Amino acid sequence: MNFTIVVPEGSTNHGNPKLLCTPPAWYDYVLFYFANYFAHAATVISYPGQGGFETVAVAVSALMLPVSGFTRAANAIYRRARFESNPLKRAARARALCMVVKSLESLPESQQGERLLSDDHPSFLKLLSSLLTMSHRSKHWWSPEVIKKVPLDYNIHGPYSLEHKQGYILAFVPSDAPLEFESPEYTRQLKQAKGFAESYNAPKLLMSLIQAIWAIIVKNCGSDCCQPKRIPGDQIDQYGYAAFGLTVAPYAWMSVLNILGNILTPDYPAVFMLRTPLMDEVEERKLGKFEGELRVKIDYSRSYEPDPDWVDFEGSVVVLSTFVFGLIPLAIIGGLSGFRSQNSTPLQRGFTMSWLAVGFIIGLVQGGLMNDPNEIGDSDLRFGIIPTTIVLLGVPAIGGMVVVGQMIHDFGIYCAMRHWSRQVGELVSALRGRPDYSAPQHQQLHHESNAGPVQAGKGADVGSN
């Protein structure tokens, strides 16, 4: 059945009689950016007890450099904490346990063991070099060379005080530490307590799922409103691999990975301290005081046999997995567009591709820093380094988002997306107490004729059987 509508100035069907794209209103831009970029970045996995600064920094980093968000998902997928039956080891895999250790700097140089690189090199180079360089691991799982310091702004369960300048720090318990509760009775009491209760981050899991489904719908919604493997309208025909719909690919893939990571990792309200002989030593020397710690039995006799072919396996796997995960969006873009430039401008291709390329390369490094923020120094140093890095390296992302906005302005908003964004605009207008005059008003007029191109401001046939 053919029908005729009156459309606002600037509307077009891009030569497709089954398509209608109208000029975007303000809420179209808001919905597109929020649904396709900001909401995806908010799904990045958080660690137990994570500080507010780190939470914001991780989300902003994932927004500017989406590959950086892959690192935490890769780490969670690799650790698979949910499959650990021992509740203590499960918490350790989720980075929810810490203990007092001697800082590496407080030990004699002869006891510090071999290093991958000297202290003069950035720590992310040490991490990346583990893919190519073999090194001995310290014999003991509890060595300061093996475990990682808890950032000072993390939320620790129970009040405590510790003189960090005296050579003692709180560090995360390694995921493979040999742990068990002090007694069966203590285990039963702890299970009944609410403090150590684990849960799953349902809001983030739900948001990740919604974002992944939304991205699939947007990318699969074609000129027939559901034509597989097509970006709405002729975006790819018009812009090629620079099409603004394709810039969503890294963010959508990040949400999928975060779904897996959140399913495999339980959530804890804070980081829990373990009572150890070294903690007793600190209290005896009046260098600290601790309350609310968990009483466990730890096997300090367990050691690793030196192996010249040993590699920092976990760090290497996470980096390598992040690298492979980062190639998936590139494969999606190439598969849908064939890497054809079509009618896109050099500016459009330059910003969208630099957004993807810089996000891929720098995202690996930034993701490592976000995954273990203490690697680059104390909290005060992180407050300076991380924001500066995000701002400087986020320029391609900002430029890419500006170019995306220009393409949306020139291309128009696809009819299916218009339905959702207009509902948002009408809701906001209702809350403000006045009608939304920016929304285009369409008047349908039935007309029996063959479909033809849309003409703004006039009755035009846009549908057919």
Characterization of the model:
With 465 residues, the chain is of the alpha+beta class. Helix content is 46%, strand content 9%. The protein folds into 2 domains: 3-76 and 201-265 and 313-415, no CATH class; 81-199 and 266-298, no CATH class. It is built from 15 helices and 12 strands. The strands form 4 sheets. Strands 5-3-7-9-6 form a 5-stranded mixed sheet. The termini are close together.
Low confidence ranges? 110-139, 220-232, 303-311, 373-377, 416-424, 436-465
Q: Order of strands across the biggest sheet?
A: 5-3-7-9-6
Count the DSSP helices.
Answer: 15
String of helices and strands: EEHHHHEHEEEHHHHEHEEHHHHEHEE
Integer average pLDDT: 71
Number of strands: 12
**What is the subunit arrangement here?**
single chain
Instruction: Tell me the strand percentage band.
Output: 5-15%
Cα-to-Cα separation, first versus last residue: 5 Å
Largest beta-sheet details: 5 strands, mixed
Based on CA atoms alone, the radius of gyration comes out at 27 Å
**Helix-and-strand structural type:** alpha+beta
Outline, from the CA principal axes? elongated
The figure for the number of domains is: 2
Helical residues, percent? 40-55%
What labels would you give this structure?
three-stranded antiparallel beta sheet; five-stranded mixed beta sheet; disordered C terminus; 46% helix; single chain; alpha+beta; 9% strand; 465 residues
Gist of the model:
The chain is 46% helix and 9% strand. It is α+β, with helices and mostly antiparallel strands and 465 residues long.
